[in-house]
What we know:
45% of the residues are buried. Strand 11 (154-158), helix 5 and strand 12 form a beta-alpha-beta unit. It contains 10 helices and 25 strands. By secondary structure, the protein is an alpha/beta fold.
Amino acid sequence: MSRRPHVLIVGGGFGGFAAAKRLRNADVSVTLVDRTNHHLFQPLLYQVATGGLSPANIAAPLRNLLRSQKNVTVLQDEITGVDPTSSLAWSNSEHYAYDYAIFAAGGVSSYFGKPEWAAIAPGLKTLTDAREIRRRVLGALEVAELQGLSDPPTFVVVGGGPTGVETAGAIAELTRHTLVGEFRRTDPSKSRILLVEAADRLLTSYPESLSAAAAERLAEMGVELRLGSMVSELQNGEATLTSNGRSEKIATASIVWAAGIAGSPLAGELAKAAGIAPERDQRVAINADLTLTGYDNVFAIGDMVRFAGRDGAALPGVAPVAIQQGKHAAYNVLRSLRGKQRKPFQYRNYGAMSVIGRGAAVADIGPAKLTGYPAWFAWLFVHLLQLVGHQNRALVAMQWGWNYFTKNRSARLTSGDAMLFPAGSTEASEPHASMIAP
Length: 438
């Protein structure tokens, strides 16, 4: 009895999961390796970070999702190296031989040569990131209440793309609506929220009319837009913004980084092993059929690669790109096994949408340019449809309905005494006179 071909999939995110599902009925043995035990719906991480949803609402165990797919083995491990010449990948404890490999290890936040900023301004890539941002945002408000501060905290969101816009809008809703009446010594609704973007408009990949609509709505919600501004320095409790040669220091309680994406560390290892120079953002350039140059049995997809679309520009690091690439990589594996020529990948852009706040969103769907409630309902429908698992869809739909009608965000729990101190602080501030109860 001949051995079935072995397909190694590294990463259980959108791309890796889509590839595994595409191989459901194939006569292959699939090993899916991920450093976590769950599939994560990253587009909704900002809602976990701002108390709108619980982590379990947007994540599901990979073993459970793939339990009926008998040709898949799920292993929780972290691949740290690869030798494409020997068709071998490895972690700190195991070696994985393969006939075909699909690398879908995702990306990390890019700090443009300032990796030390990561501890000061976490990005939104993992559940750990989201929980930490929630701890910092809510913790800053608790500090203001504890110290009886008349001036509530300032929050800075860096990056005017979809993640930055959605996060700034969610923080505005949290402070302006959800927390009203819950504090006695400080007023969260007076919190200052800054959205910093280096370009001259938000959502640069959207039509200008939608960018303007998003900016107008955020301004109505009390978000200060700093367009054409760059972050030149970050320290605990302070961000320095530079615009037109002028610098401004902003005292801030919490900073969220949504300004860029780079390939995962494994992308660099893959490029090095293949003798390919990685791109500036540490992504790997790949062939039209999604294979690594020189290795026709190694595919790489998603945020860890750079792939040009029909217009010559690199495809964005969004879920639809990773999903389509994952399906196509698996399709090309099957064609290879049948002795057929592989097909080049072509991305089909079905549109883009970003939510801004309650009843407000922008959507670019073919000829339709939607704003307000029509875009908001479209955003709700698409994101519910894309969530993995019927249980998660039902829970998120009910939670969104409750949040809308009550203006409440129930997932606002934090843990640990450290929530009362700013990032990087090791001790409490000096006692304030107003801390003495009347």
